[in-house]
């Protein structure tokens, strides 16, 4: 960690301050990048065709049949590329979405890295998607939808002519960016290296998870059961977006995450709001009061002890954060935010704290389907992000205690008729599977090697982030494999990840391929 | 009004205290009821077949094409029964759902009444409906769905055999109870009278509205333009449920109603809750705080001046309310309510106050479709019920002022990019068309005649209610026609009116037919 500032300076002035030895490395890296870029440019259409077929497979983690199709598709992609020992790593139960594994042994290599991405996607509400509500029918747009990007046909291949895509065009589909884009970047980077006659600098293992968006409930089990197979000198995680400035970034930590669902109960059957309104308590009114009690107007969480366990960033990490170009003003303009939460704190400072976010709320209907009723229940989906020091179970316990303190009888199931008559306020609280935060020291040899490699693949100064706002189950790699992780995202920051109209800008895919070419051939 | 207590006593002890003259009337009424009951019993299958065909027509007020089909169907129903001068009464615009009108002139009659029901229904969310999500495919159940009522085939007609329905069975479909059931009861009561060789005691006009559930935005206009055609000695409104005890009721007033929709804005595109959670304000969190500020934990509305305009019930009306059998304990058990709003007040007392109800609330998704996002907006549909003294525009202005006081910039449209960057809190507030409350004195001759007629059609003591919790645009009849209204509901109280799985118990339809037989032949 003490080398952090030096390292950051190194990375910032990489081109200017390189030694003779690093100059040779740099020159070699440039040559490889150039070769692999030529290969990719000649094969854009094949890459996109395969990507489209992959995106056309629905991939929500709880849809076992679809997940199995994705896993088969992925196995075939890996076999086609000559990756060896390909196999599905399942858990103990048949409905566990399997991780898809493969490996490449490199002659003379002394180190082994595992490249990780996930092939499952966030749940979808098709009605919210543009282009006919089909999240699994990939479309090409001339740019970002909210900036007027229009749907165009994928270019047709003509015999003898190379198909060239406009790099500003984007593919829209669930998982285009999160995280089938990551899978496709890794496998095509490998392809480009091999087809260009280059040799990876390390043994490479591939590990593609199938339930990351469901909170990775079986990942620990899979890692533990395959400890020998997964032996390595570190994991490189490909997930998430690059920096809002468009610069590539290397991320050395992530927040943890756990989901909760709170249901508050009203009358047993929906009621006419005229005949009973004012007398039968409205569950939506109860829920809004409960949720309002959890945060103040600056976004500070009022749940007792919510910030108690937080391990603050070290002074060095804070310095690193201050060195990062801050996207705050850009993001305020881009998102239409007049006043962010946090009473003046920077985005990156706020991301170093645990959060409580309403993912969704629902009671009866609004808009054209709204009717004059007292709803029978009101539901809120919450998302708690965790930082170092937080434990996901302890954090949800605090929220549960808060609900109890607001006078609720808390259950993990529907109330019985007797309970409804006994308790005025009843909440069903369901806790999803969660995981804790993780951080790798910026001075770890793997982190240093990856930062150098990614910088070598970029014309701009890259961004090094001690911890990302988003989450990945990286603490499981520490816990079960005692292994180090470094995260290298590739998606555009405005990718609508987790929401409708998710998309990947093609330039980011091409850059991502080059990033992973650099990583697979890095000195480590 | 001073005759109220006496009148109530009269109605309660009707059978015991009747005079010789009323005995003759009673005897005549009994004979008519018996004759028309025989007719109905012989024709149950034809009545239900027609009702099913009627319910199979979708009837949401903003769906012009479907509304036109309903109006045609209704015209045909009326013509088939020999009702004269049938016609559609439209507004000035072509997309106004027409009222369907017809009349019967009775030889020697000196009085004229208009019978009102509405043929449009509340909006539906098909996904919420049992039986395959088809609100317009009527099904027969052996009882209430929430008490285990099961779907059975409608009985088949066999040559020469009379089809008899179990009166406890229920028809499930949108508008079964609210209010196509009312239309069908009125038209079949007329049929039964005529087919039994009886003559109505008055001229009868029929007026079936087509946009009551949309807030009757054009009713005033239709009434005004057809003042001469609609000349009468009073209107009888058939809508709403009978008393929770199962007793028939006559209602002399209704609350007014106005809907509002509040949209609070978040980031311009949906965001990953990890990468931005804690910094980009969540519109659902803003909305819950805003809504929570509107009511306290006893359900009291905290909007300034909300109760200021209320014209309280007179002491006589309060006495009448106290005389009504109170369903509070029954409803608490039936609905699973441990502690009603209102700090101990009775249901009927609470219904004498204006209300603010959350009809629905929505931001992003919950359940299986929930994703880890900061939503772009959060929406709440509100329903304000009004009592005598309230004005619907003044009441919504109070709520708007409350929103302003909470620090919101209030618009009636989407914010521009500039506004988003200028104002931290932006709410779009849409006010639907509304109408005020109405009350007819219990001592009005029409009210007295109707109470006596309905009592004569019932074996139990009926319930007389000064004002219903629900709403009907009755003040428009006063305003545009200077006419009096009395409301006679027929639906079972547990009919899921306005919600999914709306239903009508057949016994209530049969009783409703008899109620309107009594009204059409009453002494007035």
Overview of the structural elements:
The structure is a homodimer of 524-residue chains. Chain A is built from 18 helices and 21 strands. With 524 residues, chain A is of the alpha/beta class. Chain A has 2 domains: 4-16 and 46-252 and 440-520, Aminopeptidase; 255-310 and 353-431, Alpha-Beta Plaits (2-Layer Sandwich), CATH 3.30.70. In chain A, strands 10, 12, 14, 15, 16, 17 and 19 form a 7-stranded mixed beta sheet that branches. A 6-stranded mixed beta sheet of chain A has the order 1-2-7-3-8-20, covered by helices on one side. A 4-stranded antiparallel beta sheet of chain A has the order 5-4-6-21. The longest helix of chain A is centred in the N-terminal third of the chain and has 23 residues, at 20-42. In chain A, 56% of the residues are buried. Strand 12 of chain A pairs antiparallel with strand 12 of chain B, so a sheet runs across the interface.
Report the count of strand segments of chain A: 21
Radius of gyration of chain A: 24 Å
Note the quaternary state here. Answer: homodimer
Largest sheet of chain A: 7 strands, mixed
The figure for the number of domains of chain A is 2
- Terminal residue distance of chain A: 18 Å
What is the 3D form of chain A? globular
Q: What name does the CATH topology of the largest domain in chain A carry? A: Aminopeptidase
CATH class of the largest domain in chain A: Alpha Beta
Please work out how many helical segments of chain A DSSP would assign. Answer: 18
CATH superfamily of the largest domain in chain A: Zn peptidases
